[in-house]
Amino acid sequence: MTAVTLPRTAPTDPRAVAETVTDPELPMLTLADLGVLRDVRREDDGTVVVEITPTYSGCPAMGVMRADLLHALHTAGFHDVDVRTVLSPAWTSDWISEDGRRKLAAGGIAPPGTAPVRSPGPIPLQLGPTRRTAVCPQCGSPDTVEQSEFSATACKALRRCRRCGEPFEHFKEI
Amino acid sequence: MHEETVYEALSNAHDDEGHWAFGTGFDEPLAGVDTTVPDGIDPADLGAYCLMLGDDALVLAQRLTQWITNAPELEEEVAIGNIGLDLLGQARLLLARAGSVGVLGRSRDLATDSIPDEDALAYFRDADEFRSTALVEAPNGDFARTMLRLLAAATVRLAVFARLRDSRDPVLAAIAAKGVKELTYHRDHAARWVLRLGDGTEESHRRAQDGVAAVWPLLADLFTATDVETRLAAAGVAVDPAGVRDEVRDVLTQVLQRATLSVPEWPAETGPRGRLGEHGPELTELLDTLQGLARQHPAATW
């Protein structure tokens, strides 16, 4: 491990530092924009506790997020940092901020609509084509079709614009 | 610990001895989660139950990834890979939960103690210690059979997970609430393929109907509770599989009828087999691939 020079200035608000950390797979978004950063607080003993929640059970980016948060907070002068996973309540795409939605669209990814409401009973089958709509982030046309409900990451679907012909990704409602 | 770069932060995330080579390494999926077992729940039963649900996910994920580079179209390859990844994530959480309540016991007979519980459970148990069912273990067959198996497996799992959202074990309830969202996508994806294939060409219909014939017998051991499930269901922790039988049958019948496929007789139920560690040779074969390298080099780190 390499020794580093710690900043001499007093640490700022740990929340402000944690809120600058971006998502490893969607670098245009911060973890706060994404709704993955659930809480940042200081315990009485000075430890900074950061809570994050996975978007999907198999999200392979959790380890990098944890490391990025530790790195940012250590660099800002917070020595004792505890990054914890919280599983409940389960993450929903509704937690993506308005700012985050704008950044997604600007980055070529259509933002999600409203997530389906989950009833406590059996989950109804959806056999027809999905009713989701997405506006093409390239040309703005609403005339787009879904190619696949799964894309390069679990959180996105693959669509194509009928007007400009470009393929694009759509952040899934979940 | 003050890291210069993210890469150092990653390599120091766990310990100074490097990461065990065959796990995900970076973090333990339940890091920071309160894993206390609520009063009145037997930890041994809870661990055994988490293995049942975790092993189903692990084995099906492994089967699905066998399609990578072989799927009929690129988009479908990506879909199958993502479904497998969701299931692998569920398996990690469930095996970690099983580990957190002590299923590995005190005398871990492993080459190294530094292997995380979830990985020790995935890589170092023999077939007869697995609690998965025949439905997820059977070979893929062709694409139609793969989609029929995925439809059946996702339907059963979704029905169970939807109920587990109310489990008295808060960790299990949280894993289930998350899993429900993913499994809804999996089930609907498989169902749409079954419609497309069943109500497609003569050839696709024939293959889908053959898939039904291959998958239906695999439902025989799914709906009778083991003693563990019976005890945990009574304690409000687990789901009695008999309670999801009608819902599963309704969903499968609905899809098959819409797909113009004939619905076979419900198979004669055999009682639990896979849940008790009884498996066919195909699980051993699958585990040889999954575990072979890790077992040859159990102490490898990077």
Question: Would you mind describing this structure in some detail?
Answer:
Chain A has 174 residues and is α/β, with parallel strands linked by helices. Chain A folds into two domains: 14-85, GMP Synthetase, Chain A, domain 3 (2-Layer Sandwich); 96-114 and 133-171, no CATH class. Helix content of chain A is 18%, strand content 20%. Chain A is built from four helices and seven strands. Chain A has helices at residues 14-18, 31-34, 62-75, 98-106, and strands spanning 37-42, 48-52, 81-85, 109-110, 144-148, 156-161, 167-171. Chain A is globular. The N and C termini of chain A lie far apart (40 Å). Chain B is an all-alpha fold and 302 residues long. Chain B has one domain: Up-down Bundle (Ferritin), CATH 1.20.1260.10. Chain B has helices at residues 6-11, 43-65, 74-100, 117-123, 134-137, 143-164, 170-198, 202-215, 227-234, 245-258, 281-296. In chain B, helix 2 packs across helix 9 and helix 6 (143-164) crosses helix 8 (202-215).
Per CATH, the class of chain B reads Mainly Alpha
Q: What is the count of structural domains of chain B?
A: 1
Number of strands of chain A: 7
Sheet with the most strands of chain B?
Answer: none
Stated plainly, the CATH topology of the largest domain in chain A is called: GMP Synthetase, Chain A, domain 3
Average of per-residue pLDDT values of chain A: 89
Content of β-strand of chain B: under 5%
- Computed Rg of chain B: 20 Å
Counted up, domains of chain A total: 2
Query: How many helix segments of chain B?
Result: 11
Q: Assembly type of the shown chains?
A: heterodimer
Record the strand order, biggest sheet of chain A.
4-7-6-5
Helical residues, percent of chain A: 10-25%
The most extensive interface between chains reads: A-B, 53 and 64 residues
Mean pLDDT of chain B: 91
**Helical proportion of chain B, percent range:** 55-70%
InterPro entries (chain B): Aromatic_CoA_ox/epox, Ferritin-like, Ferritin-like_SF, PaaA_PaaC, PaaC
Organism (chain B): Geodermatophilus poikilotrophus
Protein name (chain B): Ring-1,2-phenylacetyl-CoA epoxidase subunit PaaC
Protein name (chain A): Ring-1,2-phenylacetyl-CoA epoxidase subunit PaaD
